[in-house]
Amino acid sequence: MMGTGPIHSTHDSSVGLSEERPLRLRPRLLVSSIGTDWLPGVREGIDVAVQAFQDAGGEAGVQAIGNLCIIPYMALEAMRNYGIMMARQWRMDYILLIENDVLITDPKTLVKLVTKGCPIISPYFDQTELIPPGVEKAHTLYGPMYKANQGLKQVDWTVRSCVLFDCRVFDRIGERPFIDVSMYDVDRYHGLYFQRCGVDWFMDTDTSVKLLRYPSPAWEFDFSKVRPPKSISWEDLRAESEQKRRWFQEAQEAKKS
Length: 257
What we know:
Blueprint: E1 28-34, H1 42-55, E2 59-65, H2 76-89, E3 94-99, E4 102-103, H3 109-114, E5 120-126, E6 142-143, E7 152-155, E8 157-158, E9 162-166, H4 170-173, H5 186-196, E10 201-211, H6 234-256
Parallel strand pairs: 1-2, 1-3, 5-10
Antiparallel strand pairs: 3-9, 4-10, 5-9, 6-8, 7-10
């Protein structure tokens, strides 16, 4: 149920929250990896950041969501929603949604994002290694556009490659906030939806993650190569389950002999 009044950041620049101080009340954080086909270094970066969060006094765990897409890219939003629902089920305080091509280079990234006290916050997306030589303008991955090291900034939207939610916002935006359709400007769509629910979105430009490739829109995929799924009856499904049960029994008997 949506509440009344906006949810704003609790960050106070005069207080000067420091990532060096222990986290209070042992906040519980779920890192939900969207996809398990990690690019080199991605899973290791997550593990190091989780350990640093625990060392700072928090509790954290990693949920690796395997590919649920029958057709490429077509279930990514459902995978995000799945992670959010599990975070609520497990009574987490925060959830970080991170894709399998985002490299966390600073071990204190999770600590820095959580201690900013924002309802929704994204790190700065470092895309320098993806920009061809001689090209000065970077891809628009958030709006308004900011440069690195400009402090905490409110944004209208960012790509969802890496974003941290305070789980209390799901009382406003719902536990399945991401629309599971392929559409243009889906990031701006979600940003406007969050605004209409009274939830602010921020970017910590002092904390960056490295993009190892650009977000791949579904329309870049050649759908002519996709074969429609074969229709299956309940009888077929039941027969397949029975076959798998027999295989399992045979394997258990083989172990005993």
